[in-house]
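Before relying on records like the one below, remember that each one covers exactly one chain. Contacts with other chains, cofactors or solvent are not represented anywhere in the record.
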Amino acid sequence: MTGTVSIDENPSEALRDPPDVGEGMDFKLIELLFFAYRDFVSDADDNLSSYGFGRAHHRVLHFVNRRPGLSVAELLEILQITKQSLGPILKQLVYTGFLVQEAGTLDRRQRLLYPTQKGRNLSFQLMKMQSSRIQNALNGVENQDRELIERFLFGMIEPDDRTLVENLLRSG
């Protein structure tokens, strides 16, 4: 198997058997990551929905809370989304009183983001839920195993983004 699959095969033919495990495809880890992510975000998703917020709001609140004064440009780099995607989310978070947006002191065109107490409270509430799930998963894990987990997760990050992530983890 070359690792590529043609999508031009007969689209109307129903396949009744599960796929063979292909070369380099680790279904078990792929599915564990799907389920872990699903459950990791589910508690926060349920809480956020009561505000009319989604996962993008969560990510914005998280990073602004962890780094008050974060510029919109820095946030765009962290989240790897467009200004057009971020704009409505920021507008809603500012309008509902979770964030404050201020002009930069040196460059008035720069937009700096700060959490309000309301925003910080929600961010901490969401982090507590996710931290609890992480702590439950880490119960009984030795220190060296935690380091292995951290290396694994870091290895999942695109190589070009690793320096940014290292700097964010160091500064937070």
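The mean pLDDT is 90.
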